[in-house]
Amino acid sequence: MRIPYSDMVSVFSRILESRGMAADDAALAARLFADASADGVHSHGLNRFPRFVSNIESGIIDVHSRATLESRIGGIERWNGNRGPGNINAWICTERACDIAAENAIGVVALRNTNHWLRPGNYGIEAVRRGCIAIMWTNTMPNMPPWGAKKAAIGNNPIVLAVPYGDSPLIVDVAMSMFSYGKLEKYSMDGTECPVDGGFDEDGNPTRDPEAILKTRQVLPIGYWKGSGLSIALDLIVSCISGGLTTQEVGKLDSETSLSQIFIAISMDSFPDRKELDAKIEATLEAIDASEPMKAGMNVHYPGEGMKHTRDQSMRLGVYADDAVWSKVLEML
Amino acid sequence: MRIPYSDMVSVFSRILESRGMAADDAALAARLFADASADGVHSHGLNRFPRFVSNIESGIIDVHSRATLESRIGGIERWNGNRGPGNINAWICTERACDIAAENAIGVVALRNTNHWLRPGNYGIEAVRRGCIAIMWTNTMPNMPPWGAKKAAIGNNPIVLAVPYGDSPLIVDVAMSMFSYGKLEKYSMDGTECPVDGGFDEDGNPTRDPEAILKTRQVLPIGYWKGSGLSIALDLIVSCISGGLTTQEVGKLDSETSLSQIFIAISMDSFPDRKELDAKIEATLEAIDASEPMKAGMNVHYPGEGMKHTRDQSMRLGVYADDAVWSKVLEML
Fold first, then answer.
1. Pick among A171, A202, A234, A280 to test the B interface (most B CBs inside 10 A)
2. Which of A44, A64, A301, A309 is catalytic?
3. What chain A residue is nearest to B230 in terms of C-alpha separation?
4. Shortest Cα distance, chain B CAs vs residue A206, angstroms
């Protein structure tokens, strides 16, 4: 079914307020969930909302906390998420990084002790709206084996890279694993294979069979050994800069919490050659779009390009919602 | 054969001086080439030296130029490489980023109009030696098709992420393509397949056959569409920050030159909790090493771990050199 965007925001907001969240935080969190669904990222929109509420109810998320500035170390600010809502904390740090960038060309905000930030792209989109390039990433609990290992010991540590370009910015929002567990479960439910190898089966062979991967939990890093190395580095860098927990330390907790994140914003307006830079971006993205496709009838797009179309459709026709999940959410009212 | 490290440095240095390079630059460039070979990165060590010299002779590299500071924009320095030697320029910017980081916790140096920086890891290793985390990348000429496209339009844009850890730091040094052209040529010469899919064949099917990929030049990005997106973002970010050419713009030149690079250093000493951070790094890297391997008899390592062993061996027994390449280099004396 399709739900009007404002209805979806309103329902989310009322539920969050009823769980003790302050009205302005609830409104923001509700909007971020609805935006994810409106942009087609259902896994971190409506579909993730029930888990967010249950994490509030179980105390993993402290609904009364918000990120606070802990220290300034040269060009770096360290913030403490105080185990508050991950989306609110990430939003605060995104805004702060953009504020610093407006003054200093670059803003670097590191956040420790926070919760899952839900849809990463939201923060890249906001930075871009404020005229900033964004470089942001988070660590996670151990959910991927290091290259050559049997058991999960590193995170899939999603990264967001965003570059302003009119109303169709470049938004690269990728985890260091080839597929998330949510995606593997979706393939399994749909009875389809992964489009490329997604992990290893019980015999240690690469496989596209989502059920085999869900069994071994040996998901494949992007670029095999390369993504494994990138994941380790992203984790250690973010936990050092923020002074927060590493993936290994998060793995010792009862649940995935107290994560470390970094928010780097670079203000395009600070550059005297901004016009030339905008032209460079346009020329590159247009050339990619105009690429001759490998197979006839296909189109080549840059990441984020399709989002505007999906968003427009959601605003016009309503936001797509899985019937069962939406019913479940309505019961939380 | 194996050549004593100091002999290799001396030969490189004399050749570069004979091509007009100032003595101190020649000594540094020679050391960087020898270090790459000593650490086992032959493709960007000895094996690349003849091409470096021919690029000097053909004027792509201006042997008399060095990177110079162009402007300070808030927390960002923009440098102009003046088409000087890429390794000397990258070294200057690495040192500068570390100098700024020593004062400001983080140093951000953007470099435009430079040449190929040869072995990326060298700059990560130097930053780490100075107690800094390193985040550095370069763009390249178009050498990889964007996801779904037939022809190269994006770069493989290598990135270096480095984290200090005693004499075995974490050094992640990866391009956004699964295999470099050099590596594909090596597989082809050796008559072996790529260990995983490396590109597409003429029918548009993924393949491990290096010759098929060298024919289509459709190399595979790491993580398929993910690496394609990362490559586009890395290119646009680095060319905006530096004010330099994009991959697309480099592709219009007669040869691969006037590249854009970024050098971010974060000083570990600036953090009051440095001891705890060092302990976190140690715990993570030791846990990875201690991982149960997926297949019996294998070992799990973090990136950069094996380097010290190779380096020690090179210093003890001499640096491995391909006979034919070494002979060719000696003829340049």
1. A280
2. A44
3. A172
4. 10
Which CATH code is given to the segment(s) B1-58+303-333? 1.10.1530.10
Q: How far apart are CA A231 and CA A149, in angstroms?
A: 14
Q: How far is CA B290 from CA A270, B98, B281, B287, B298, in A?
A: 47, 32, 14, 5, 12
- The phi-psi region of residue B216 (left if phi > 0; otherwise alpha if psi is between -120 and 50; otherwise beta) is alpha
Phi, psi dihedral angles at A80 (to 5 degrees) = -110, 125
Q: Where are the alpha helices (DSSP H) in B174-292?
A: 181-190, 210-216, 225-242, 247-250, 274-289
Longest dimension (CA), chain B: 57
User: Would you name the residues of B annotated as active-site residues?
Assistant: 44
Q: Where in chain A is the domain with CATH 3.30.1370.60?
A: 64-177+222-270
Tens digit of pLDDT at every position of chain B (333 positions): 999 999 999 999 999 999 999 999 999 999 999 999 999 999 899 999 999 999 999 999 999 999 999 999 999 999 999 999 999 999 999 999 999 999 999 999 999 999 999 999 999 999 999 999 999 999 999 999 999 999 999 999 999 999 999 999 999 999 999 998 888 988 998 999 999 999 999 998 999 999 999 999 999 999 999 999 999 999 999 999 999 999 999 999 999 999 999 999 999 999 999 999 999 999 999 999 999 999 888 889 999 999 999 999 999 999 999 999 999 999 999
Regarding the domain with residue range A178-220, which homologous superfamily does it belong to in the CATH classification?
A: Hypothetical oxidoreductase yiak; domain 3 (3.30.60.50)
A147 contacts in B (CB within 8 Å)?
Answer: 300
Neighbours of B140 (CB within 10 A): 23
Q: Are A258 and A80 in contact (CB under 8 A)?
A: no
User: B123 vs chain A: nearest CA distance in angstroms?
Assistant: 16
Tokens 């925001």 map to which residue?
A9
Fold of B65-175+222-271: Ribosomal Protein S8; Chain: A, domain 1 (3.30.1370)
Q: Distance between CA B122 and CA B91 in Å, rounded?
A: 8
In this predicted complex, what is the ipTM? 0.97
Which CATH code of 3.30.1330.30, 3.30.70.3190, 3.40.50.1010, 1.10.1530.10 fits the domain covering A1-58+321-333? 1.10.1530.10
Kind and range of the H or E element at A311? helix A307-317
Of the options 3.40.50.1110, 3.30.70.940, 3.30.1370.60, 3.40.50.300, the CATH number for the domain spanning A64-177+222-270: 3.30.1370.60
Q: How far is B95 from chain A (nearest CA, A)?
A: 18
